[in-house]
Amino acid sequence: MIKIENLYKTYKIDGHHTDVLKDINIDIKAGDVFGIVGKTGSGKSTLLRLINGFIVPDQGSIYINNELLTKQSRKQIIKETSMIFQNYNLLNNLNAIDNVLLPIKLRKLDVKKYYVKAVELLEFVGLKNHLTSNISNLSGGEKQRVAIARALITNPKIIFCDEPTSALDDETTHEVLSLLKTINKKYNTTIIIVSHNINVINMMCNRIAIIEEGIINDIISKTPTPLKFSSYREAIVND
After folding, report:
1. Pairing mode, if any, of strands 59-64 and 2-13?
2. Whole-angstrom Cα distance, residue 227 to residue 68?
3. 60, 24 in Cβ contact below 8 A?
């Protein structure tokens, strides 16, 4: 599904070149819920932006469905993926269902053909009574549910999640993560989650990459289960 080989990324900070990612090698299988966990500044968000094609690596290769991700191939490859953002990335001037349909409009597809599906997706995420609600009137959890419905409208094979619950309280976090689990099981959607929260990673992921100072410290397979530890490795190894 996704293969990363010998990936490097360097940024110029205050006139100095800083290695953000160094020799990253990851193999993500179809249907995985794959977690990338690390402290702030470890390079996890940069790694996600490389995988979803938002930025390009200095060295190395990324393959999605056996196709090399390049500037030229990105547009076609990314059509099979969706993104769930930390801050929802919804448009306040559109209601819930119009936000869900936004990717369809941007791809210049027939919105009318997708309207029923958008309604079904909002019902699926528990918002059947909020189809025409203004985004500003929704809670944080409801906004993230709209964002999840929007991510599903194009039938993605891969969903990227960038700290998807960091703005939510504990109860809403559990609800959103349960919804993502359901999506993974129902549609066999590959989900990649970046988070600094080990509890989120443990609840969701069957495989986890621990990233420290731009280097993959370890990749561990496990059964998803909620845990509370201060150490990333201790949390995973002691499961």
Report:
1. antiparallel
2. 36
3. yes
Q: What is the DSSP letter of 189?
A: -
Q: Please check whether residue 21 is in contact with residue 7, taking contact to mean a CB–CB distance below 8 angstroms.
A: yes
Q: Using the Cα atoms of residue 178, residue 184, residue 187 and residue 192 in order, give the sign of their dihedral.
A: positive
204: CB partners within 8 A, 6+ apart: 33, 35, 177, 180, 181, 191, 193, 224
HEC-encoded secondary structure of 127-169: CCCCCCCEHHHCCHHHHHHHHHHHHHCCCCCEEEEECCCCCCC
- In this prediction, residues 105-119 reach a mean pLDDT of 95
* Tens-digit pLDDT profile for residues 88-104: 999 999 999 999 999 99
Per the document, the length of the chain is 239
How far, in Å, are 28, 40, 59, 169, 213 from residue 19 at the CA level?
24, 15, 12, 34, 9
**In which residue are the tokens 């966990």 written?**
37
Whether 225 contacts 202, CB under 8 Å: yes
- Measured distance CA(87)–CA(7) in Å, rounded: 27
Q: Is the pLDDT of residue 168 over 80?
A: yes
- What is the predicted pLDDT for the residue at 229? 42
